């Protein structure tokens, strides 16, 4: 077990809750090995069945065509159909104008399908999928670490495997080519803005199964074998997340995909604002049916504990100005010189045809100013593009966060999430230490529960939160259904997670993994 090996090496501190989860994941891996074999055999049988059925279908059609040509239709009817169907079909053949269009073809199709069931047999049954795991617990309790160990271990065992963070899942749903090519507006955002609530939900139900079918398996891939989805930080922050994730995850689970997910909350506690309650409850029932829920009950933030146990090279320089800034620039020169490249400016693709200008880059190393990344209307798509293209990211001028710049703070948290999820090396210059970064300034604290709960951004006579729960559209044309209006407690989770991850990103264990895990080195 990899977990025990890391404990023996002194890289992790033993925790009984973590060991229990590691054992559960190891047992699931064993079940997946057998499931992969079962699914391979199933897909072979399914392909054979589909080929036989199609061949028999063609044979029956040719026979019917030959009988029609010989004028022997009545003999065929008399031989193969009941008296009721005989009269109906015979009249249809002789008096097509007296029968509802399409009914004759539908009856023929149904009878042909029944014949095929008799000749070829029923579709082979898929083997039952092993139950997945839904891991939840406090920030820094080891959920993501354990899931990532498991995901790495599935390589070579499970054919179709994907690991996503919440932001990536949302963007994948939005940019799905299947959705983009529908006869609606070009993006789901515009579509949600244009459609009425009832129509939106009905269309979602039709769209999401097709999106889900392409979520794990590319069009060019062989569909044989098992599939597993590792999903980090499940959240239901808005109407879109609830409706879309419910549809896609439910579809994947129903079709045999095994899910391993992490979250700060138990499934039933994900939707504390009560948005789209009926859809949400069905989603929770599906998770319970297909996943075992496991609480990692540790109150210890192990990222912080690991950081305290090791002497590590500092990559977080504070306060701004003076020697901190000099150390920051000195590290930039050292790391870029080691890469042996030339510092250039470049443009990287984002999504929806957008691009992002990077003024300083060198062989997978990029330097940015905080205001450029978080002081403009950019988001997860931009941060994912940066995280995928740069294994080392320098960010200068990070201020202490306060209520006055709360939007910047939210963007910064999303940026940290993506850099962490892609295992980037991060070097920062900031106004305060990591622990004090989110505590606010004289202008006000960043987290003010009363201010969050009673924020009066009004939609007519309703608070924005009430409008969001209904999934309606604001008078200003902004689709509130896709705005992440997090509750105060969700904000606290996010701030604590960012601090915890910033601390871990300074540790030798994390930094050693950059070259092994970052996408830049997998090309």
From TrEMBL:
It comes from the Eukaryota. The keyword Coiled coil applies. Keywords: ATP-binding, Coiled coil, Nucleotide-binding. InterPro entries: ATPase_AFG1-like, P-loop_NTPase. Residues 18-66 form a coiled coil. Gene3D superfamilies: P-loop containing nucleotide triphosphate hydrolases. GO terms for cellular component: mitochondrion. The keyword Coiled coil applies. GO terms for molecular function: ATP binding; ATP hydrolysis activity. It holds the Pfam family AFG1_ATPase. Belongs to the AFG1 ATPase family. This is AFG1-like ATPase. It comes from Punica granatum.
């Amino acid at each position: 077990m990899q977990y025990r090996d890391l404990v023996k090496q002194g890289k992790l501190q033993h925790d009984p809750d973590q060991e229990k989860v590691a054992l559960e994941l190891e047992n699931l891996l064993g079940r997946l090995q057998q499931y992969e074999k079962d699914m391979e055999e199933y897909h072979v049988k399914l392909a054979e069945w589909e080929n036989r059925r199609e061949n028999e279908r063609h044979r029956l059609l040719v026979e019917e065509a030959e009988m029609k040509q010989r004028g022997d239709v009545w003999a065929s009817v008399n031989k193969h159909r009941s008296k009721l169907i005989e009269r109906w079909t015979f009249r249809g053949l002789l008096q097509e104008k007296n029968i509802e269009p399409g009914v004759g073809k539908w009856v023929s199709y149904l009878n042909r399908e029944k014949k095929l069931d008799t000749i070829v047999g029923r579709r082979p049954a898929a083997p039952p999928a092993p139950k997945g795991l839904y891991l939840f617990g406090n920030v820094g309790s080891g959920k993501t670490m354990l899931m990532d160990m498991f995901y790495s271990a599935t390589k070579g065992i499970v054919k179709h495997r994907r690991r996503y963070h919440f932001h990536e899942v949302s963007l994948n749903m939005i940019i799905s080519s299947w959705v983009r090519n529908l006869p609606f507006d070009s993006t789901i955002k515009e579509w949600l803005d244009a459609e009425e609530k009832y129509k939106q939900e009905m269309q979602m139900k039709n769209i999401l199964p097709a999106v889900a079918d392409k979520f794990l398996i590319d069009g060019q891939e062989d569909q044989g074998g098992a599939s597993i989805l590792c999903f980090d930080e499940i959240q239901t922050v808005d109407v879109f997340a609830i409706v879309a994730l419910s549809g896609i995850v439910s579809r994947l689970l129903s079709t045999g995909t095994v899910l391993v997910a992490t979250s700060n909350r138990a499934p039933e506690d994900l939707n504390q604002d009560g948005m789209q309650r009926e859809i949400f409850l069905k989603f929770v029932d599906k998770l319970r049916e297909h996943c075992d829920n496991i609480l990692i009950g540790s109150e210890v933030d192990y990222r912080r504990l690991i950081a305290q146990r090791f002497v590590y090279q500092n990559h977080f320089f504070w306060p701004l100005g003076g020697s901190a800034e000099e150390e920051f620039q000195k590290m930039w020169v050292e790391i870029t010189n080691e890469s042996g490249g030339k510092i250039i400016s470049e443009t990287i693709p984002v999504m929806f045809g957008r691009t992002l200008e990077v003024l300083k880059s060198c062989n997978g190393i990029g330097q940015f100013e905080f205001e450029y990344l978080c002081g403009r209307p950019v988001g997860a798509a931009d941060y994912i593009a940066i995280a995928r293209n740069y294994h080392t990211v320098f960010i200068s001028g990070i201020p202490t966060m306060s209520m006055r710049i709360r939007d910047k703070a939210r963007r910064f948290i999303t940026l940290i999430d993506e850099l962490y999820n892609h295992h980037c090396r991060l070097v920062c210059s900031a106004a305060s230490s990591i622990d004090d970064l989110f505590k606010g300034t004289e202008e006000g604290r960043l987290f003010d529960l009363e201010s969050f709960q009673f924020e009066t951004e009004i939609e007519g006579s309703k608070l924005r939160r009430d409008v969001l729960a209904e999934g309606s559209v604001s008078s200003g044309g902004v689709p509130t259904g896709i705005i992440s209006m997090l509750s105060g407690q969700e904000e606290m989770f996010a701030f604590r997670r960012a601090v915890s991850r910033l601390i871990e990103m300074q540790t030798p264990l994390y930094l050693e993994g950059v070259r092994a895990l970052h996408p830049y080195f997998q090309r």
